[in-house]
């Protein structure tokens, strides 16, 4: 029983072929394509309103050079939210519970922000490794600490998203199993457990959206330091 709780995080296979790519591509099919008509339908209007609001809030502290990342941030936000929300449906697979996928998104984007800073303003970017007014004796130690913290950033991005979604899925499965087992023995307790499961599911919907927003927000903060 203990091992079966983690079976939901195994990448699905069909005839020996991993279906990870299919699970990643399906969300893009669900979004409506832009229309050339003057009047859009409700779904497209809601989608455009969300993208405009999110992009405006995210790019507000960035300068003009950082606005070039608007398309990347908006696409990544919608992509992560869709994957996280679809993973809450029964008999579905959540690709964002895989650390390899999250690191594959975090490392290149973080590295791109660092490269942009080193290319455009190397003095300012390297200045983050040594705060102003540091005592001479602490300079080597602080440089090492700040360098380690710099390289830990993409790891923290990937691990945070993976850990939060994995913990949520495990809690839902544990409580659902408890409610199923307690139903013939103690119906009242099973009913209370089912109510708790419903509330936890609502919480996980919020976590799925918040974690996608936090992932993109931290990337925008890393970009803000380098542009």
Proportion in β-strands: under 5%
Number of strands: 2
Please report the distance between the alpha carbons of the first and last residues: 51 Å
Helix share bin: 55-70%
Give the helix tally.
7
Q: Please, what is the average pLDDT?
A: 84
Compute the CA-based radius of gyration.
Answer: 22 Å
Count of spatially separate domains:
1
**How would the global form be characterised?**
globular
Low-confidence stretches: none
Task: Give the neighbour order of strands across the main sheet.
Answer: 1-2
Secondary-structure-derived class? mainly alpha
Biggest beta sheet summary: 2 strands, antiparallel
What string gives the helices and strands in order? EEHHHHHHH
Give the gist of this structure.
With 227 residues, the chain is mainly α. It has 7 helices and 2 strands, in the order E-E-H-H-H-H-H-H-H.
Describe the protein:
The protein has 227 residues and is an all-alpha fold. 69% of the residues lie in helices and 2% in strands. The chain is built from seven helices and two strands. The chain has helices at residues 20-30, 42-59, 70-86, 99-120, 122-127, 139-182, 187-224; strands at 13-14, 17-18. A two-stranded antiparallel ribbon has the order 1-2. Strand 1 and strand 2 form a beta hairpin. Helix 2 (42-59) crosses helix 3, helix 3 packs antiparallel against helix 7 and helix 4 runs antiparallel to helix 6. The N and C termini lie far apart (51 Å). The mean pLDDT is 84.
């Amino acid at each position: 029983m203990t091992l079966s709780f983690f079976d939901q995080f195994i990448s699905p296979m069909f005839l020996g072929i991993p279906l990870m790519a299919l699970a990643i591509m399906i969300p893009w099919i669900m979004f409506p394509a832009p229309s050339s008509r003057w009047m859009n339908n409700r779904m497209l209007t809601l989608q455009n309103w969300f993208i405009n609001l999110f992009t405006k809030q995210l790019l507000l502290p960035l300068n003009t050079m950082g606005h070039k990342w608007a398309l990347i941030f908006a696409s990544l936000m919608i992509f992560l939210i869709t994957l996280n929300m679809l993973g809450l449906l029964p008999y579905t697979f959540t690709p964002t519970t895989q650390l390899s996928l999250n690191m594959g998104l975090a490392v290149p984007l973080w590295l791109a922000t660092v490269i942009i800073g080193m290319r455009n303003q190397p003095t300012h970017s390297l200045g983050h490794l040594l705060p102003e007014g540091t005592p001479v004796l602490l300079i080597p130690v602080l440089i090492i600490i700040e360098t380690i913290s710099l390289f830990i950033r993409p790891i923290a991005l990937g691990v945070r998203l993976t850990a939060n979604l994995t913990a949520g899925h495990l809690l839902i499965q544990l409580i659902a199993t408890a409610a199923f087992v307690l139903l013939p023995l103690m119906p009242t307790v099973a009913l209370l457990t089912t109510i708790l499961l419903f509330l936890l599911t609502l919480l996980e919907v919020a976590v799925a959206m918040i974690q996608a927003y936090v992932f993109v927000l931290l990337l925008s903060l890393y970009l803000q330091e380098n542009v």
